[in-house]
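Quick one:
INPUT:
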């Protein structure tokens, strides 16, 4: 329980200070930061996709037979990879549709 509480406090702290930092930046810095997060996160996630497919399809057996994973462990790994992808997609569309009528 303490780990969950500590994690929530840490996330709240990071969110508060990231928001303060973003608001104190000028518009050019804000746009550069948004672009860097978008492209950096998208490219980084895309680069991990083939690696995760390699692992899920038993590729670790090719590297070292002692690293073989059980089916429940493979499913947990796949869910752990897919969950951030789903979160990013939902967040993107949420932000996109929240600004639907604000295009200039």
């Amino acid at each position: 329980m303490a780990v969950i509480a500590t994690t929530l406090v840490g996330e709240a702290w990071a969110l508060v200070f990231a928001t303060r930092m973003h608001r104190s930046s000028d518009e050019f810095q804000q746009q550069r930061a948004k672009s860097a997060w978008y492209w950096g996160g998208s490219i980084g996630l895309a680069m991990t996709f083939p690696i995760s497919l390699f692992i899920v399809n038993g590729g670790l057996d090719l590297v070292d037979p002692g690293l073989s994973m059980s089916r429940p462990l493979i499913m947990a790994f796949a869910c752990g990879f897919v969950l951030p992808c789903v979160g990013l997609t939902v967040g993107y569309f949420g932000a996109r549709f929240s600004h639907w009528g604000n295009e200039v």
